[in-house]
Write a structure and sequence with these properties.
There is one protein chain. The two termini are 22 Å apart. The protein has eight helices and no strands. 27% of the residues are buried. α1 packs across α4, α5 packs antiparallel against α6 and α6 runs antiparallel to α7. It has a single domain, classed as Arp2/3 complex 21 kDa subunit ARPC3 (Orthogonal Bundle), CATH 1.10.1760. The chain is an all-alpha fold. 75% of the residues lie in helices and 0% in strands. It is globular, with a radius of gyration of 17 Å.
């Protein structure tokens, strides 16, 4: 009896890993660094998690989870409520419909796909923020944020790959 309880807890923790990693990435991205204007251009780590899990484990990372992570991202980054939620769900859908191009290919294909997704997401975010504020928001921070996210992508992706192989390879 006791073994089955521990097995169920272990199984539940493994199944929650994609959501928990996206949650942790969201909270880490809210940490402010003592760099001028870093908050405006900090890479969206949560989007990296949404992208990765939508490709590799869509059975464990649903659109509702992307919505929840996006909503939390709005709260911790003081963005208009629902903006990141909408963007993350749209990104999840976009990646999910194109995942056949990324699964089973080299890492550079995954990275290239993230770069394209990041550019689409950042342009959509910029457009929506401009529409919400009824004025054009500065475009340079959006470009810098997208470039930073594309440049650092291998590090969080490596971590997610390792976690997936350690915990989800036999589920």
């Amino acid at each position: 009896m006791l073994t089955t309880v521990w097995q169920r807890l272990d199984q539940g923790a493994r199944l929650a890993l994609p959501f928990v990693t996206a949650l942790i990435f969201t909270l880490i991205s809210a940490i402010t660094l003592p760099l001028p204007w870093f908050g405006e251009v900090a890479p969206p780590l949560a989007l990296i998690a949404v992208y990765y899990w939508a490709i590799h484990r869509p059975d464990l990372f649903w659109p509702s989870m992307a919505f929840g992570i996006g909503f939390l991202n709005d709260v911790v980054h003081f963005l208009p409520l629902g903006l990141s939620a909408l963007i993350f769900v749209a990104a999840h859908h976009l990646v999910l419909t194109q995942r056949r191009f990324f699964v089973g290919h080299a890492f550079f294909m995954l990275w290239w796909g993230f770069a394209l997704t990041m550019l689409i997401v950042m342009l959509a975010t910029w457009g929506l923020q401009s529409a919400i504020r009824w004025q054009l928001v500065p475009f340079l921070p959006v470009v810098v944020q997208a470039l930073l996210a594309i440049i650092i992508f291998p590090l969080p992706a490596w971590l997610l790959i390792r976690l997936q192989r350690l915990t989800l390879s036999h589920i």
